């Protein structure tokens, strides 16, 4: 099959126009444009002309974008102006093959592409690098899609292969979020929408925590152009309020261990055969088996209320037809209020335990029970806090058609993202209260919901009193200043040269302060609180989707309280008003990281008239980045043993550090696409991309955990500003068959070889010359007197009663359970405290490979259609659950699948979507700071959307998210080692939309 030079010239011209629209121009796809595309396709396939709208128009425009782009590109196009297919952009992205999402509170938040997690996917807004902040993931690079409403978005573009003109940072993918531009859609277009939202997860909360049952959403978009086509204005705005919740049961600090079955370490392992207590162990792990023991366990309920406000203003001016200028302002605000209550217990790993175990070489208990000589605490914890995230961006773009063969574009923007507390109680806080009435305590892991039983606990006759508390105040701000200039020059008749330069100055600063009261043994008397302050609620009812929620032995009550009231009462009773409020005035930790990147690229593309016509694009991008890290941290000065298991660190003074580093990367790329037939393409791509380390991996400054543990010591973390980015060498192959206007079958394979991966390492070391009383002279005297290492109450009572008034020892009273209260401070003659310190190094390489299969098919003119895809991802770098050393493994690696059924006619549109993501490794460090795997179980969710068009102006829509009420679970080294299970609930929406 041969093509003439004239045909090549026309194809090249069309390709450049489409490529510019996809990559850099402010394009938008409307139903009318889809019709034009359909007509163009019809003319080449001799099919009858069919005018399509709605979902089918979106599908057709998406295929046109995919078909005509350089490299492997997928995307989603809005059905119509102001009408994106999903209520959340991340949930839209998950429909694309190779893309899976992380959910928070039942809503898509961050994306993983081809096995590479959120930090290795770059998100752009209209081709611009966007800053991002997230207090729940302080100093990560991953973009939080829950901050953006979908109403103003015209399309999402997912670039899966490297291109010279693409900014760096996305090894998995570069995701470009495009907003509407008025001059690309001439005339007046506007619509308004309203929705009522019913989130059933809000109904599954205690009455004290419930928010408004039905919440509103409002949106509007307006776009207009002047009659002469020179001026354009676009305005969009939305407001969404959501009341929701989730209930979670689990081990916040993970499991102790793992230990070998032959381990005889005192105070932390099972008794050996023949020793006292061994008779209480059923199917004891063998000498060479690894086993773990639960450290703590709790049930929590969380009520969340969110208000999300988005707005954008776009002004366009085209003084002459060759020059288009655009000024745009974008704003988003996401405010979240959280109320939480928790009931939890701590296991002391006593030798008087009873347990049953499964068979295997790596095991965790099926049941585990501890017996205590003195009453233990039942912890009743509550929090009430709020956060606010704001994103602001102002940008200018000028596109100049300098001549028939030359286009030049300049773009600049200033964008910020800022997150902080929106509550007088800080960004996160907890009041920890306790009843010292717990005797035998058992946890049963054989149910879907782990069942905690403690029959002796009596929170009525042994009233709850204040214990420890902490008030965190986190703040983060990211800024990006960026300028880009690029051009495209047509050479000869079928070739073009693309070129560009850019400069990006980004800053990420985060601060953190903590006000903590370490009165874990009790700080108040029961008489300090009115009897009605703590309200009992039926615990099992909040986990009714999980097996075991109705087990007879389940502890029956979860306690709630008014946080503000209890905080004020506790501050009054203790005479410590300042200790029960966050520190807004100064920060314990203050870190700033600056990255300044200069870049340039050159790319040459041409069409080739060969037996199999093909297009090639070869290019290279060069970047130089300078990194500067400045950090202020709070050094530790003492370790104080204040209660049964807690060793809080005392802090004082400030320490500062500043470090510089730089790196240069040359990133070549080659993209080929072969026209096997007019309706069939074969693509091949090769190139290099980079993914920059997370900010907290780069930021210098040592940070200590605020509380150590008697058995494991303390925790700490420190970044490495000299980390180099991960560099990936990529190979991609894709076969695409466009057998109908709105139908495609495609197969793709990919291979990524990554070097300089920043592996997370946990180092055991002493820090700041901090000494612990555990193992010191007083401690050893208590052991010699008959106390065991596991019985920390016995140890503390002996030291406080025999050495009160001696250096480091201060008895302050007697607790309600008869144990002594007081502080035991580490002395210079005591052992140095051991800290498990998390740090990072460029010492790892990894390979990721996989395949995608994707089909999109419309069944003639029946209105029925289907979208289905499956992605397989694998890597030889896997976590070895039988290995107790620090390990490197790729996080987020999982298979995924989508199945979407579609029906549409002139009145109705129906979409039923099922999304599935396989099990994946979420972390290599557990909640207790230990090197241990955290796996997220496979998860599937069904969403439904039904639309009805009343007339050309008015339409109605009903949506259901998580229709089947799926639950989520995480586990440790074995599938049976439950770490947490989470129940939320379906979300229903009914709305109307009016087009003017």
UniProtKB/TrEMBL annotation:
Residues 466-963 form the TonB-dependent receptor-like beta-barrel domain. CDD domains: ligand_gated_channel. GO terms for cellular component: cell outer membrane. Residues 1-34 form the signal peptide. Keywords: Cell outer membrane, Membrane, Receptor, Signal, TonB box. Residues 262-285 have a biased composition (Polar residues). Its main location: membrane. This is TonB-dependent receptor. It comes from Duganella alba. The lineage of its organism: Bacteria, Pseudomonadati, Pseudomonadota, Betaproteobacteria, Burkholderiales.
